[in-house]
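Hi,

Apologies if this is the wrong queue. I'm a grad student, and the batch job for HIT domain-containing protein from Leucobacter rhizosphaerae produced an output file that my downstream script rejects. I'm not sure whether the problem is my script or the file. Here is the sequence I used:
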Amino acid sequence: MQRLWVPHRMVYVADQHQPDHHDCPFCEAPARSDADALIVARGETAYVLLNLFPYNSGHLLVCPYRHVSMYDEATPEEVAEIAALTQTAMRVAREVLGCHGFNIGMNQGQIAGAGVAAHLHQHIVPRWESDANFFPIIAQTKALPQLLGDVRESLAAAWPHP
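Support response: The file is valid. Your script probably expects a header line. Output copied below for reference.
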C-alpha cells in the first residue's frame, strides 16, 4: 500500500481556533506581498486569494478587506465587487486551468462549517470532469497536481487589468 503524505494539512486539521480581528488571516493577507499571501487580484473593497488548504487545485477565496462575518453585513459595494471578482475568477480559471465547472459558496458561521467564521469569504472551487475519485474517501487525502505558488502566478498573470 502506498501513502501520500500531506503534513501541511495537519495545521488546518489540528487547529480549531477561530480567529478574531486580531489574528484574522484574511485581515493580515492584504498587508503582505501578493506572492507571500497567495493573492491573485486586489479590488477596491475586496480581493482574491488562493485557499491555503484547497479542496481542489485553483481553489480561490474572495474576501472583503473589511472584517465582517456575515454576508448581510457587507455593504452594497462589497457585495457587488465580490460578485464581479467571482465572475472574473471563473473566467480566468477556465482559461488558465481548463476546468469544466465550479462549486461556489459561502459557509456562514462556525456551525455552518466556516473555517474562519469571523471574516466573510466566498469559495470558488474549480472542478474537472475527471477530478472525482475515491482517494479522498478511502485515504482521506486530496492529491493536488500543482504547487500553490505556481497556480497563483498563472492566475495572477492571466487576470485582466483595467
